[in-house]
């Protein structure tokens, strides 16, 4: 651009503010024009447009890109695959829950021992079409129990915590559950997840807790008289300072419990 207007000062002063502004505008338009063309081409919009409005023979240039169209098609197909996989597994869990609901109404003590198996049913990560990582994770990440199902079934056990005597609840997930004053006398809790649960004054007499996880559990006044605690993991002696047990209580190999404390019932017998 030699002169912007008849009043251009470039021939006299060597520069012109208006000329520089117009040149900057031209550079701006050229740059964003290239960006817009690149997006128009690589997005597949140009390809679709030319399918509807074919270019004239003398206007035909480089063929339009179809890369993103192919990638989008593959992504939608992948999402459909993992979504169907997730739904099939979720439907299976819902069928098991439906059967459990019927049994709970008919025979509570037969129904409760079935809860751990349903809690431990694995399901893929739920895919979300607007979150590509969730789709990839649903396909490649390890499956895990359905969190809401685990919590709902946990609530059923908590509601019936006074009726758990002699039940087999092996591998049940009761992490964070309020089981204070629960009656689990002679129950089987092999490999149960009791992390951060409240077991205050719970009856664990003759309970089988081998390999259970008691990390962070409140064991204050929990009665472990004649209980099988072999292989219990992630607990400390401090947790047992206010618990009850006797010489028949079985401990994990190498674990040294605090001094024995007898249950309130046993102390009554000893004083009479």
From TrEMBL:
Pfam families: Pentapeptide (PF00805)
InterPro entries assigned: 5peptide_repeat, Pentapeptide-BTB/POZ_domain
Gene3D superfamilies: E3 ubiquitin-protein ligase SopA
PANTHER family: BTB_POZ DOMAIN-CONTAINING PROTEIN KCTD9 (PTHR14136)
Name of this chain's protein: Pentapeptide repeat-containing protein
């Amino acid at each position: 651009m030699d002169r912007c207007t008849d009043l251009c000062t470039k021939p006299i002063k060597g520069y012109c503010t208006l000329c520089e502004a117009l040149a900057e505008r031209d550079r701006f338009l050229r740059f964003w024009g290239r960006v817009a063309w690149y997006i128009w081409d690589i997005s597949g919009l140009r390809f679709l447009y030319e399918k509807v409005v074919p270019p004239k023979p003398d206007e035909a240039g480089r063929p339009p890109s179809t890369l993103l169209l192919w990638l989008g098609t593959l992504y939608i197909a992948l999402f459909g695959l993992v979504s169907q996989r997730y739904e099939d597994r979720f439907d299976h869990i819902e069928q098991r829950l439906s059967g459990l609901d019927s049994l709970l109404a008919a025979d509570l003590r037969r129904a409760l021992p079935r809860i751990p198996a349903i809690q431990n049913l694995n399901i893929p990560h739920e895919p979300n079409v607007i979150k590509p990582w969730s789709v990839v994770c649903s396909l490649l990440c390890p499956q895990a129990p359905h969190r809401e199902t685990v919590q709902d079934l946990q609530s059923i056990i908590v509601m019936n915590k006074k009726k758990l005597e002699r039940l087999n609840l092996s591998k049940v997930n009761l992490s964070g559950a309020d089981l204070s004053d629960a009656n689990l006398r002679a129950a089987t809790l092999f490999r149960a997840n009791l992390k951060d649960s409240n077991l205050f004054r719970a009856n664990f007499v003759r309970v089988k807790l081998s390999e259970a996880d008691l990390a962070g559990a409140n064991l204050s006044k929990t009665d472990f008289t004649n209980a099988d605690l072999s292989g219990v993991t992630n607990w400390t002696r401090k947790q047992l300072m206010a618990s009850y047990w006797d010489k028949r209580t079985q401990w994990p190999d190498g674990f040294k419990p605090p001094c024995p404390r007898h249950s309130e019932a046993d102390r009554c017998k000893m004083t009479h």
